[in-house]
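hey can u check if this looks right to u? its 229 residues, i copy pasted from the old doc so theres a chance i mangled smth
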Amino acid sequence: MFTINDNEITTALNNNGYAIIPKVWSAAICKEMIALYDVPTHFRKTIQMERYRFGAGEYKYFTYPLPAYIQQLRQELYQHIHTIANAWSNALQLGMHYPATHDAFINQCKTSNQTLATPLLLKYGSGGYNTLHQDLYGDIYFPFQAVVFLNDPHHDYTGGEFVLTQQVPRAQSKAVVLQPEQGDVLIFTTRFRPQKGTKGYYRVNVKHGVSEVHSGQRHTLGIIFHDAA
C-alpha cells in the first residue's frame, strides 16, 4: 500500500499536467519487476524501437493476467485520478465519463474491441532513447498514464531523463525534463490537458519521451490504463 495526497495530486495535474508520487515501490520490488523482463510467459509482444524509428531500446507488453503488483497499482492509481479525468472531460466538453473502478473502465474498452493488455516494461542501454509520442491504442483512452522508475539514477545509469513537451496553440512547445527516483511513480497527461483561457478552456497537446542514456541500464514500467485493439 502507498499514500496519495489527493489534493496535491489534483493540483499538480491541473497546474502542470504531471505529478510525482514518491517511493511507491521499494528497491526490492523494483528489482523483482526488472527480473520479469527475462520471463517470456509474462509478455504478449516485444518491440525493438529502432525497427519502427521509435528510438533506441526495447520494450515488452505484458499479457493478462498481469503480475499482482502491477494489477494492484493500476487499479489503485485509477481510483485516485478518475475524478480528475472526469473534470477534464467536462472542461473540454469531450463527452467521456470514466467510471469509479478500473474494471468498469476496462469493460468500456471491451465494447470498442480493445482487449489487449497495455502495461509494459522498457529497457534502455547506453545510447538508448525514446522519441516524443503519445500512447493511444484505440477510440477509448484514459487521459492519464503512469511510469514507475525501477533503477537508481544515481548509481545504475546516467542521462535518460523523462521529457514532456506541451504545445499551446499558436505558440512554441514547452519542454519539461524530469528525473524521478527509484520506486517513484510519475503520472502524466496521455494526449492533451485543459488550460483556461479568456474564452474558456482549450487543449494543450502533450507528448512524452526519454532523453539519451549515457551509461548503464534504465528500466521503467509503463502503466497505461486503457487496453489496446
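Residues 6-224 form a domain with the Jelly Rolls fold (CATH 2.60.120.620).
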